[in-house]
Amino acid sequence: MFNYKFLFYAFFSIFIISCSGTNATTMEYRSATTAVRSERDLKKGEEYALKALYMPEHTNDARVAYFLAIEIYKPRRNWEKMNEMLDIATTRNPDQKLERPFRLDDGTIVTTIAESTTIYKEQIWMNLFNQTVELVDAERYNDAINKINLAKSVLKKTDNYITSCLLNIQINDMMAAKEDLDNAIKMAPNNVRVLEIAGDFAQNEEDFESAISFYKKAINLAEKKSVIIEKLIFIYVEKELYDDAIDLSTALIDENPDDPDIYFNVGIIYQRLASKLYDDSVSLWKEITQQEKPNEDDIQLTYVNLTKTLEMVRQALGYFMDSSMLEEEENSETEKAMDEMKRTRKTINDIYLDSIRQIAKENEVELN
Fold it and tell me: Which end of the chain has fewer CB atoms < 10 Å from its terminal CB, N or C?
């Protein structure tokens, strides 16, 4: 005898399976779309759609989550919930056809959940990133960090980690900043801004060799090199690689002949050179003046160092004066630097050089 009972159960099972497919619908979902599209009632539409979202009939259906994202949360500018729903839609059925396909400006027709999600996630990210910038401008750094962390969950972009790194530095969370920087380097090892920040980080930790390496790589890749070159120059000065610092400074001025800040910064380099030589020279001069019979080599060395110091002072003063002439308004910092170099020049000439010449004469040392 034919088993009609078995046939009934088999048919019923097929019916249930088909109802849980992508073409299935429910009263809740229909009520949601009606509330939003006909009645313009987003609150009512959200309530029905959230009920429909986890119903068995929509298990493999991306439509409900996509509807919530685009027709409920997007108009409300609730980017976090919009992103969450797009993720659910993509997980359920990325290849599902859109109920409402749309055309891009270039004529491309977007027809699937996956294609649409890619476009909308870019919009979500841009809004979150712009909100982060606004919070930074308002100096609400902790709120900005929360916002950029949300942007990280939308799309993996180098800008997320650069911004987050700088914000964490701002609030002095160096561990989090280092983690962001490491992620940025992994994502974009040839990104000039990432390399510059890595150099800054290494310099701050006094890891000068790493800083030099990062800055050099950034300089080779950058179109605008001046700021990074200046940072490298100051590391060279810190490490007493003065010839390298001066060579880079000269090249920098050649590229930027009308920039007063560069002249001023080069002046600072020579000022630091002069300061170190000055301290060493004065220290040796004091030792000599306390000796009954100073060593000829010490006299010669003191004289040479003082003349070198004087030349560094003259160079520094020259660059400060060049900076002053290029500045559109009077700069008290530049004026102060010039005055300091003039005083140092006078002190070297009137006190120390005169003194060492007299000591050399008394000890029958010919200075050269």
Answer: N
Q: Which helix (H) or strand (E) holds 97?
A: strand 97-103
pLDDT digits (tens, 9 = 90+) for 97-114: 999 999 999 999 999 999
Within 71-221, residue ranges assigned H as helices are 74-76, 79-92, 113-137, 141-154, 158-170, 174-187, 192-204, 208-221
C-alpha–C-alpha distance, residues 44 and 47, integer Å: 5
Q: DSSP state, 353?
A: I
Quote the pLDDT of residue 20. 44
Q: Write out the DSSP string of 192-236.
A: HHHHHHHHHHHHHTT-HHHHHHHHHHHHHH-SS-HHHHHHHHHHH
- Residue 256 and residue 262: Cα distance in Å, rounded? 8
Q: How confident is the model at residue 245 (pLDDT cuts 50, 70, 90)?
A: confident
In this structure, how many other beta carbons lie within 10 angstroms of the beta carbon of residue 195? Answer: 25
How far is Cα 113 from Cα 13, in angstroms, rounded to an integer?
28
How far is 136 from 130, CA to CA, in rounded Å? 10
- Tokens 């080069």 sit at which residue? 266
Describe the crossing of helices 242-255 and 260-289 by its angle, rounded to 10 degrees. 150
Can you tell me whether residue 103 is helix, strand or coil?
A: strand
Task: For residue 104, give both structure tokens.
Answer: 């891009």
Rounded to two decimals, the pTM is: 0.75
Over residues 313-351, the pLDDT tens digits come to 999 999 999 999 999 888 999 999 999 999 999 999 999
3-state helix, strand, coil in the chain (%, to 5): 75, 5, 20
Band of pLDDT at residue 13, cut at 50, 70 and 90: very low
For the chain, give the longest Cα–Cα distance: 136
Query: Residue 59 and residue 307: Cα distance in Å, rounded?
Result: 85
Bridge partners (DSSP) of residue 110 are 102
CA distance linking residue 99 with residue 295, whole number of Å: 96
